[in-house]
Specification:
48% of the residues lie in helices and 18% in strands. It contains nine helices and eight strands. The chain is elongated and about 100 Å long.
Length: 339
Amino acid sequence: MDEKDVADAVTGFFDSPLGIAVHVAIAIVATVVLIWLLHFVIQRVVDQIVNGVKKTQGAEDTQALNASPLATVRVVQRTRTIGSVLTNIVNVVVVVVAVAYITELLAPNLLGSLSLLTAAVGAGLGFGAQNIVKDVFNGLFMVMEDQLGVGDVVNVNVTGSEVAGVVERVGVRVSQIRDVNGTLWYIRNGEVIRLGNMSQGWTRIIIDTAIPYSADVDDVQEKMLATAVGMSKEPKWRNRVIDKPELWGIQSISEDNIVLRLVMRTRTSAKDDASRELRSRLKHTLDELGVQPPSLAAVALAGIEDVHSVTGAHPPRTRPVSVVNEAPRIVKPRKGKRQ
């Protein structure tokens, strides 16, 4: 048996029903292996970049990178986001190609005979799938332009509502955001109208403190600023506070109180912790100075909603006069007098 006979035998086998079944099985296995291999390569590249960043910054895990430069954190987040998007693209492309190839094996003339029908259906789907295309392209631009990444704290204005939370996954068509209550929101990328990212660059803590009108404003301002500066110099907060705290001064003056504004620039990941710590320290500072906040009665009400819950703001109550059980009064004529 020469090589030609072997080739004819192999060709004849794959043309038989059993051969076609074997060919389809091989195609399915090859598809699974290809997807796994591409996933492995993408994950390997992502891990290499992340590990390189951690090694450069001397961090043991990704959470420790919060104390590293902001650009470093963005590199890690963007790398993981792009890796997630590439994984989704690989899944879609490989599966579509595999399905077309298997269809060609099972029915060689099917795709050709249905070409016109496929074109018509494709045109119809094109009009119906405009939102899907919009979602995909918007998602790609959001990732490439680094508008958001996995782990970012964002405020997203979607059609008709707003969602705020942490980005858990950025997909080609849909992104997942978990809010503070634990609800996981699935947001189509094409529905995003406006996006505010609170994890890029820096953030500012703004604390407005009301003190009595009679308090020594200069002394209170000096002690408040000293408290904030002292906190920023401590080892725990030194890497989280970016600039020296600033006291912007008197924010507003009313008949009974004065509002002072203190600001501090911090890393985005440390805003909540630093804000709580600073408020606690300012409270102790005011206690040491003997400064009591203005009473609730001195605060002007914005409206009459919930006015019943404010001490001293209850409307006057009058005792109702009951007239239900009161008998009708009958006037009797006097005796001895006739008309």
